[in-house]
Amino acid sequence: MRLSRFAAAAALATGLAVAPSAAWGCTNLIAGKKATTDGSVLMTYAADSHNLYGMLTHSPAADHPKGTMRKVTEWDTGKPLGEIPQVSHTYNVVGNINEHQVAIGESTWGGHEELQDTTGRSIIDYGSLIQIALERSKTAREAIDVMTDLVEKYGYASSGESFSIIDKDEAWVMEMIGKGAEKGAVWIAVRIPDDAISGHANEPRIRKVDLKDKENVRYSKDLIKFARKRGYFSGKDEDFSFADAFEKHDSGTRRGCDGRVWSYFNRYAPEQAKDWFEWVDYRSDTPMPLYVVPEKKVDLAGMQDAMRDLFQGTPYDMTKDVGAGPYHVPYRWRPMEYEVDGKKYCHERAIGTQQTGWSFVAQTRDSLPDKVGGVLWFGTDDTNTTVYMPMYCGMTEIPVELQPGDINTFSYDSNFWMNNWVANQCYNRYDLMIPDVRKVQGELEGMFRGSRPEVEARWAEIAVADPDELIALQNEEAAEIARRATRDYKKLAEYLLVKYMDGNRKKTDADGNFMKNEYGIPIYPDFPGYDADYYRRIVDETGDHFLLR
Fold first, then answer.
1. What is the pLDDT of residues 395-446, one digit of tens each?
2. Do residues 281 and 315 touch, judged by C-beta distance below 8 A?
3. Which of the listed residues 10, 41, 278, 531 has the most CB atoms within 10 Å of its CB?
4. Cα torsion 346, 202, 122, 127: sign
5. Cis peptide leading into 65, omega within 30 of 0?
6. How far apart, in whole angstroms, are the C-alpha atoms of residue 282 and residue 449?
7. What does the CA dihedral 305, 308, 312, 318 come to, rounded to 10 degrees?
8. What is the model's pTM?
9. CA 380 from centroid of its chain's CA atoms
10. CB of 308 within 8 A of CB of 334?
11. In 3D, which of 196, 195, 142, 135 has the Cα closest to residue 165?
């Protein structure tokens, strides 16, 4: 669930600060109900990690006897942190959404090292905040209450964090950081207007807001007082900026973190985004706003596509520089920064990235019964090559292909491993293979999205007449969808291996079938070679070394 599982966990375990430049990870994109084509509230999340297995989790609704205690375990490490009293009833939770259409995502940004818990007594980490809030909340506002009450009572055991919290009516961004030797956390939450889009990606984004707007702005009672006491802020209350008080924003974090949000804004508000690029590129100190009214509305397919963003058509386009190689690969291997002649440089960090464990687009709607209106469009591995599958908030069974597995043990029955098999072939010869991937990916997602109106209309009736039948139908469909997506990607992976083996490209007909001559012998393959720019670079670097005399 965390952006920085691959870096932050190790840093926290050794007592080191979490450097944002080393922990660029999760991306959350948001669209309010009046900013979307169908009145949905949309929110995305990518759990980016180099060591995270892609799976879908589930905790069933349950009643608990008085006196029951709930164990709290740290998400990143599995370390037991303590216990808290359990409530009498908890709700059904599928991944990051519950049966009442409350969905929560996050991104970590670290913040001041001295504000991480130094007492050792705090027992609520960011992951527990998300899970417990989903178990106990019917609305986004209730989730904020649950989360802030928990850290006040039991202490906050994580570093600086931004949360996306939505329900079928509203979308909120809440930012939180600990208080060091003091118990609890300071926080601020801002409601995203219904007609706006927003996002965060490992940088705090809440700056100057109307603190008197109690309906749309909420914050801890000691927020500004604490910031003054610690020397993080000295201006007038109305000029207070949470993002600037509790985090430093250097060129690396602007480009690698805010750059992802900017690219989303650039898709839907390109005229406005022109000015904000100066902030991302570290040529202006006028920050990007928390949210913007889009120049065109967002739909589900567009939000899924936004999660595949690779800075296409922008100054950061990852297919245009020498790092893309002859096959225009829009990926860069870690580490993110490198040094040449005493100067530091960076690789771009787009929304689409190879180390993602799983991701989703949460869709919530007030026009349907909760267990039909709330759906996680869930995918494993790289957002760019994954298939987003509809998993409904009323489900009670997780498909076999999406259940827990081992990142060190390959399995043909795992959606995560089949997606990795496809993606890792593309990383070597991207521009040749990605059209084949887009064909299968597009057919599957088009089929899943296209069937929703009919399926959901039928389910909406069943939800009233027979709730148990609805759950059974959702479990059955989820199993079939996961099975289909996993099977088709296994076939795709095998197809890519055969078609592009040995650096060649076998000839295919219009339907993608391998061609043979009239005697049944495979037709001789093509030799795609490299592009002209690559050959030019060879000559520029080696001169006459390869010249045929």
1. 999 999 999 999 999 999 999 999 999 999 999 999 999 999 999 999 999 9
2. yes
3. 41
4. negative
5. no
6. 40
7. 180
8. 0.94
9. 11
10. no
11. 142
